[in-house]
Amino acid sequence: MTAPLIVGNWKMNGLAADLGEAQAIAAGIIGARARIGLCPAATLISRMAEAVSAAGVAVGGQDCHAEVKGAFTGDVSAEMLQDAGASLVIVGHSERRAGHGETDADVAAKALAAVRAGLEPIICVGETLDQRQAGQALEIVTGQVRGSVPLALADAGFAVAYEPVWAIGTGLTPSLAEIEEVHAAIRAALRQIGGRAVAAPILYGGSVKPDNAREILHAAEVGGALVGGASLKAVDFLKIIAAAG
Ligand code: PEP
């Protein structure tokens, strides 16, 4: 069986003084049954990669521009992330879709850029609370998968992260049945892409904590987790990683 992928999204948190947490995570994963990644702010990628790569922790960006280089003030390309020591990148996080107006087409272009640069994209999808309450969760999420996962990724390494917007940072989570229903629908959408995509890991994200990680990580079609708040403290993130075993 493929090892689950458990990735911490540090969002806009973390200074050099916080690298000790990453080092503690790296020191604590010996023997873990999972692939581990940490996605800090771009400012920390290179120093974090130096600190944790030898222990087998993959480091990633939280976004990338679709172009290789150019007049895009403030943006970072996938090639730059790779150059800084990253091997992963999150694309299409709901905080970028909502706060920066990113469309499925933008996310697809970023996912392609990631693969072009040799990075493994983690392509995020997820419905809002209104959409779930209107009974549209499956339609929204599968539409996002079709729009954000380019067919050209069929033979690339990538992951999809199902992150219900209403579960991010709220302490709320869908029921296991709801998670499994959405993951099954994502798997069906990936089967239509074909190639390696049919087996791409589907991570769950949204208020994963030490006390709910075990049941979520063992749910059907859950191939790992994307963890925000609980990845900032090594003690919590290591408990989530241990729950995969
Ligand atoms: C996230 O932002 O990707 C996330 C899952 O956050 P949290 O775990 O804090 O809900």
Provide structural commentary.
It contains ten helices and eight strands. The chain is of the alpha/beta class and 245 residues long. It has one domain (5-69, 77-243): Aldolase class I (TIM Barrel). An eight-stranded parallel barrel has the order 1-2-3-4-5-6-7-8, surrounded by six helices. Strand 2, helix 2 (45-52) and strand 3 form a beta-alpha-beta unit. The radius of gyration is 16 Å and the shape is globular. Residues 9, 163, 168-169, 205-208, 226-230 line the site of phosphoenolpyruvate.
- Unique ligands: phosphoenolpyruvate
Q: Would you tell me the structural class of the helices and strands?
A: alpha/beta
- In the predicted model, the low-confidence regions spanning at least 5 consecutive residues are none
CATH topology: TIM Barrel
Count of the domains: 1
Tell me what portion of residues adopts beta-strand conformation: 5-15%
Cα shape: globular
Largest sheet: 8 strands, parallel, barrel
Looking at CATH, the homologous superfamily is Aldolase class I
Radius of gyration from the CA trace? 16 Å
